[in-house]
Amino acid sequence: MNDFVFYKKRDFGMLISDTFVFFRKYAKNFFSNYLLINGALFILIGVIAAFMFIFYGVYSSNWPLLLLILAVLGVLSAFLVLFIICFPIAYTQLLEKDADRASIKAKELFVVIRKMLPRAILFGIISFFIILIPYFILILVLARIFGNQIILMQIASYFTGIVMTLFMQQFMLVYVKDRLDYFPALGKVIQELKERFWDKLGATFVMNLIITAFSAAGIVVPLVLYFTIMLLIGIDSLIGLSLLIFILVLIGATVVFIVSNFQIFLQILIHLGEKEKEHTDDIDLIGKHVEE
Predict the structure, then answer these.
(1) Which has more pLDDT, 48 or 244?
(2) Long-range contacts of 163-169 (CB under 8 A, 24+ apart)
């Protein structure tokens, strides 16, 4: 029997620890499916970008073609982001339905993600006008208030960014996963965040620090490899240099995308914790962790 409890209110420490407990149990199946579903799209974007980089000098005067390539990259990148966000939601949703499963198939995940995409796209469009524009205005106001006090401005913008991360991801889960209408979902999220707000915000903050550290390593290591290769070997061919850059960027971006799942799953745990009263079948398992 699966002894990971989804529907459980967690405090600050348990939100962090149980996120890693989940990935310790499901990491192999989760990330193999993650790379299978998102990898092809990511590589396609990389190939198109590398092609544009290599042949930019040849086609730089052909603006219609360049604009077309940029438009294709923009659309593919938007879908990649949506798939990345929806993937852990879909994975968890399938486990919720059958908690005894040891693995999930990519085909099942793709079907669930495909059903989520329309609401995810609609959520992004509506939120751009309702939430994000006021948020950008707030950042401008903060910049005006703090003026030349750069450190205070960075602290204020970082804090508001963490609050926005918590709020927007909880909002999206209620709208996309629970399928509430937009404004009822907004009201529900505001009410839910009033309870144990600092536990939720603190866990979001700490997970963001962890992700930043891993992401930085995923960027710095390829940079070190690049300069080491260029100093020791050197690459004269433009195609060879472009291929090297593409591989290193692919490594760095893959690390960033993979570790972003930890923040998304943390938010899923927060969201599912609000449903504890609706699901009491696993009450005997509360406090029990996976040891494998």
Answers:
(1) 48
(2) 163/201, 164/135, 165/204, 165/208, 165/263, 166/193, 166/200, 166/201, 166/204, 166/267, 166/270, 167/193, 168/127, 168/131, 169/263, 169/264, 169/267
